[in-house]
C-alpha cells in the first residue's frame, strides 16, 4: 500500500496485511498455516508494500482491538525481516524461500519469474506464438496450479503437445534459460554460472494435470494414452485425485478434516463414492458423522462444477499439508507423494 492511498480504498488483502502485521510473527504464522499458497502470496505482497500505516486505517481494520494495536509501532518498517521469519515459521524453510523471493522482489522480478506474477491468460498470450518447446519450458517452470490455468487457454491439440513435452523434460541448460529470458526481454539472474536446472518430467506433468478442469483433464489423458500408453499410466500413477483420499491413513484424514469447512466438505461429498464417504464418517465423532449424513441428505441437487470446485479446494489443502509433512498422500498407483 503506497503512502497516497486513502484509508477508504483499503481492500480485503490490505486489511488482512495490516491485521497480520499487527499480530506478531508467531500468531501471524499460525494464521497463515490455514491459508493456501496463492492467498499467502497475495497477503505477503501487500505486507511487503505497507508503508506508514495511518492510525485511521488500523482502527478501520482492528475495530475494538484498536487499543492493543495502538501499542505497536513501526508497521511497515523493517517488514522484510518480519515477513521472512513469519513465512519460514508458517511454511518451513524450503517452501518459504521461493515464496519469499517472489514476494519481496515483486514487480522487479525478471525473466521467467515475472510470468508467475501475471494472470494465466496473459501468460498464455505471451507464449502463444512461441516454439512449442519454449511453451513447454515456461509451463513446466510455473507453479502447477497456474500452469493448469494457462493450459486452459489453449486448444486441445496445443495442450496435448505441451504436456507431452513437459513429460519428456528432465534438465535444461542454463544457456537455454538465458536465451528464453532474452526472448522475454529480461535476463535470467545467475543463469550463466548455474548448473543444469531440474525442470519438467512426468511428475511435473502429473502435478499440472491435477489442476486442470475435469473435462479437460479427461480428454487430455485419453489423447496422451493414444500417443503413449506407458506415459499415460505413469502420469496417472503420480496424480492425486479426490478418490485417492480413501488411501490416506486415518490420522491423515483426521488432520485434513480439521482444515476443511463443513460447507466445503458437504459439497465435495455430494459427488464422492461410498468409499470416500465411509472414510470420512469413520474419522469423525459419532455425533459429527450423523450431522454430516443429515446435511448430505438434506442438501438438494448441486451443480457438478460446485462439487468439483469443493473437491479441488480439499485437494489443494491436502497437497499443502503433504508438502509440510503433516500428512502422506498416495497417488493412484500408491506411490508416496510428499
Automatic annotation (TrEMBL):
Residues 120-190 form the Flagellar motor switch protein FliG middle domain. It is found in: Bacterial flagellum basal body; Cell inner membrane. It comes from Pseudomonas fluvialis. Residues 9-109 form the Flagellar motor switch protein FliG N-terminal domain. FliG is one of three proteins (FliG, FliN, FliM) that forms the rotor-mounted switch complex (C ring), located at the base of the basal body. This complex interacts with the CheY and CheZ chemotaxis proteins, in addition to contacting components of the motor that determine the direction of flagellar rotation. It comes from the Bacteria. Belongs to the FliG family. Residues 223-329 form the Flagellar motor switch protein FliG C-terminal domain. One of its GO terms (biological process) is bacterial-type flagellum-dependent cell motility. NCBIfam families: fliG. One of its GO terms (cellular component) is plasma membrane. This is Flagellar motor switch protein FliG. Its main location: other. GO terms for molecular function: cytoskeletal motor activity. Keywords: Bacterial flagellum, Cell inner membrane, Cell membrane, Cell projection, Chemotaxis, Cilium, Flagellar rotation, Flagellum, Membrane. The keyword Hydrolase does not apply. SUPFAM superfamilies: FliG. It is a peripheral membrane protein.
Amino acid at each position: 500500500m503506497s503512502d497516497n492511498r486513502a484509508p477508504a480504498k483499503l481492500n480485503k488483502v490490505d486489511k488482512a496485511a495490516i491485521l497480520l502485521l499487527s499480530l506478531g510473527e508467531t500468531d501471524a504464522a499460525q494464521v497463515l498455516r490455514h491459508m493456501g499458497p496463492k492467498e499467502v502470496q497475495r497477503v505477503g505482497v501487500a505486507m511487503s508494500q505497507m508503508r506508514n500505516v495511518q492510525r485511521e486505517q488500523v482502527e478501520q481494520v482492528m475495530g475494538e482491538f484498536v487499543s492493543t494495536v495502538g501499542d505497536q509501532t513501526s508497521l511497515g518498517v523493517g517488514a522484510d525481516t518480519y515477513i521472512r521469519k513469519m513465512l519460514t515459521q508458517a511454511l518451513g524453510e524450503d517452501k518459504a524461500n521461493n515464496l519469499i523471493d517472489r514476494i519481496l522482489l515483486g514487480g522487479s522480478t525478471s525473466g521467467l519469474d515475472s510470468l508467475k506474477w501475471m494472470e494465466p491468460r496473459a501468460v498464455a498470450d505471451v507464449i502463444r506464438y512461441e516454439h512449442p518447446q519454449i511453451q513447454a519450458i515456461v509451463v513446466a517452470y510455473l507453479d502447477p496450479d497456474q500452469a493448469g490455468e494457462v493450459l486452459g487457454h489453449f486448444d486441445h491439440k496445443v495442450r496435448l503437445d505441451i504436456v507431452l513435452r513437459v513429460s519428456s523434460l528432465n534438465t535444461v541448460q542454463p544457456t537455454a534459460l538465458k536465451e528464453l529470458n532474452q526472448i522475454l526481454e529480461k535476463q535470467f539472474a545467475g543463469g550463466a554460472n548455474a548448473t543444469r536446472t531440474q525442470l519438467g518430467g512426468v511428475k511435473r506433468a502429473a502435478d499440472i494435470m491435477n489442476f486442470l478442469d475435469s473435462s479437460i483433464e479427461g480428454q487430455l489423458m485419453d489423447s496422451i494414452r493414444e500417443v503413449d500408453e506407458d506415459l499415460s499410466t505413469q502420469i496417472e500413477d503420480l496424480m492425486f485425485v479426490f478418490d485417492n483420499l480413501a488411501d490416506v491413513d486415518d490420522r491423515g484424514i483426521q488432520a485434513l478434516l480439521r482444515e476443511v469447512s463443513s460447507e466445503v466438505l458437504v459439497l465435495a461429498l455430494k459427488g464422492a463414492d461410498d468409499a470416500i464417504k465411509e472414510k470420512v464418517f469413520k474419522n469423525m465423532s459419532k455425533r459429527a458423522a450423523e450431522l454430516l449424513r443429515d446435511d448430505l441428505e438434506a442438501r438438494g441437487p448441486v451443480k457438478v462444477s460446485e462439487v468439483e470446485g469443493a473437491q479441488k479446494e480439499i485437494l489443494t489443502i491436502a497437497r499443502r499439508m503433504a508438502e509440510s509433512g503433516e500428512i502422506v498422500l498416495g497417488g493412484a498407483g500408491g506411490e508416496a507423494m510428499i
